[in-house]
């Protein structure tokens, strides 16, 4: 039993890396989602094209290929990234592209009368977006953002293949050292599921918090 | 580092070999996912909570954990329990189970969308459960699901590079072995990216067509 405690510690160290990666990747994804999502709704055609190109590119190629490209090909152009940076960059940009479509869909679903109200209050575009449209749209985005964050958590397992010592990597280390397969893999499956549950629980809590007092107003 | 077309020509046949395996794995995995998903959806509808609840938990669990780890589980743990699978078979099972939990949700939504009157009509016509499903419910439920199912087909296609982690010689693995052997990463990895991008862009057009053809809700 004593030896397993040591190996469990190894896996928990990996879990910390996985959580760090998920948080940092989600932060980047959130920024990219709003940049690209709002970019696709821009008045300026070149901005729209740029945002569309970003979204189609990152949704069209697999996260695995993007990660390898960031880690192995970018250094050849002079950008050398640590595995953690490459992981955060690839995960954030990939999931950000999916989340950008969520941002766009949520903003477009806000009724026309809200925009008219902004005009009536003499808000400029930014003020209208900031004070009227986004507060309503953000609540609509939240559940899907939660799913996106869980997708990011799951996708983060591939960073083990560029030698970043996340949970999956540590499980492979334990497998190599002990020859036991059931213990490491079952443990990390349960841990991944637990983290996913925490994410969806946190998002539900945030949603309740943000919609407090809105019952009956929102349909 | 320069892009070298001669090197591209030289590695192309190997990459095409890999692409064949990628496509084979996607098609087989998807067939499995379509069947598994339907089974999960039907079991979860069971009135017996002792059957539907555990099934729901298993599906949630599979959906909440990474495909890569599931592939490792199938590839490394099952042989210890006496079931040795070839890498490709393990990969197809992994893809099929993982995406089966996603297609199950599509089936569930599609089945829920069939009007109650249809169930009642089936009962009024004295059809048994099998006849009700195959002759009344599924023929109506399936066509509107086609776009969403196709969507997961594309998503799964983009996940197949993960199979390289369990030594399936698909496109990504071929590209990596070429890259490691020649110590040139730029061409193989970029070509793999381009391959996925081209297929995805084409399939987006196909998906739009499917949505127009089947996705109408009337």
TrEMBL record, chain B:
Coiled coil: none annotated. The lineage of its organism: Bacteria, Pseudomonadati, Pseudomonadota, Alphaproteobacteria, Hyphomicrobiales. It is a multi-pass membrane protein. It is found in: Cell inner membrane; Cell membrane. NCBIfam families: ectoine_ehuD, HEQRo_perm_3TM. This is Polar amino acid transport system permease protein. It comes from Phyllobacterium bourgognense. PANTHER family: L-CYSTINE TRANSPORT SYSTEM PERMEASE PROTEIN TCYL (PTHR30614:SF0), MEMBRANE COMPONENT OF AMINO ACID ABC TRANSPORTER (PTHR30614). GO terms for molecular function: transmembrane transporter activity. Keywords: Amino-acid transport, Cell membrane, Membrane, Transmembrane, Transmembrane helix, Transport.
